[in-house]
């Protein structure tokens, strides 16, 4: 075969470029772990369409309800600053600079409502202005999680109400980070939490974070 990309016969790629919904046949499934935890692990045996001579192949799926991420932005005399968290994560043995976030664990709830609740519980702030930046799949090869990322402005401190943090959250610190410092940390690879990277670069790319006029149009 000559030089160049291998192109198997597949579904046509749309123009403009976009992901598309598609579901391959699942011939059987088996639970590997399922209890009262909000997540579950299952194995599916999948048929590739139009390939009757191939055996079904096994794929492991971590079922996840999704999450919300909040890029909460305010201004001081130096310009934009972002409300961040400094939190330990046991799975990778690392403390991360993160954004306020939480699971979509209330059935039927609008992700925006969850984002507003998580901002208040984790930081003690509310926001008047909200804009949906994107929804993104974090690791679709194995994980069904989709994260809904919001930009929040018009912040005011209101307290956490009756929310009491436990475990890692009890050790979590809340801090303001100058937007340009956050952007530099992302671009230099010092800040490595994926939702922080996504939210920061999308907001910066749209002219909504750092280095632009404070006169911005943000949907309420």
Question: Would you give an account of this structure?
Answer:
The chain has 220 residues and is of the alpha+beta class. Helix content is 17%, strand content 37%. Strands 4, 5, 6, 7, 8, 9 and 10 form a seven-stranded mixed beta sheet that branches. A three-stranded antiparallel beta sheet has the order 1-2-3, with no helix packed on it. Strand 5 (79-89) and strand 6 (94-98) form a beta hairpin. The termini are far apart. Mean pLDDT is 91; it is low at 212-220.
Structural class: alpha+beta
Oligomeric status: single chain
The string of secondary-structure elements, in order, is EEEEEEEHEEHEHH
Specify the helix fraction band: 10-25%
Rg calc: 21 Å
Q: What is the average per-residue confidence, as pLDDT, rounded to a whole number? A: 91
Unreliably modeled segments: 212-220
Spatial shape: globular
**C-alpha end-to-end distance:** 55 Å
Largest sheet: 7 strands, mixed
Count, helices: 4
Strand content: 35-45%
Number of strands: 10
Give keywords.
220 residues; alpha+beta; seven-stranded mixed beta sheet; three-stranded antiparallel beta sheet; 37% strand; disordered C terminus
């Amino acid at each position: 075969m000559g030089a160049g990309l291998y192109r198997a016969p597949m579904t046509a790629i749309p123009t403009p470029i976009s992901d598309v919904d598609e579901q391959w046949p699942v011939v059987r499934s088996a639970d590997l772990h399922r209890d009262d935890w909000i997540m579950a692990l299952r194995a599916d045996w999948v048929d590739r369409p139009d390939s009757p001579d191939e055996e079904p192949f096994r794929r492991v799926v971590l079922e996840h309800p999704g999450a919300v991420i909040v890029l909460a932005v305010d201004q001081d005399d130096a310009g934009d600053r972002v409300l961040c968290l400094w939190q330990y994560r046991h799975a990778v043995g690392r403390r991360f600079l993160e954004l306020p976030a939480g699971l979509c664990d209330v059935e039927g709830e609008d992700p925006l409502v969850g984002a507003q609740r998580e901002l208040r519980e984790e930081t003690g702030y509310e926001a008047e202005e909200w804009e949906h930046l994107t929804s993104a799949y974090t690791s679709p090869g194995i994980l069904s999680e989709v994260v809904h990322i919001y930009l929040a402005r018009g912040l005011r401190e209101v307290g956490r109400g009756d929310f009491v943090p436990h475990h890692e959250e009890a050790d979590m610190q809340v801090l303001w980070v100058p937007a340009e410092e956050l952007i530099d940390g992302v671009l230099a690879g010092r800040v490595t939490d994926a939702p922080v990277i996504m939210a920061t670069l999308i907001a910066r790319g749209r002219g909504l974070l750092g280095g632009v006029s404070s006169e911005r149009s943000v949907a309420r």
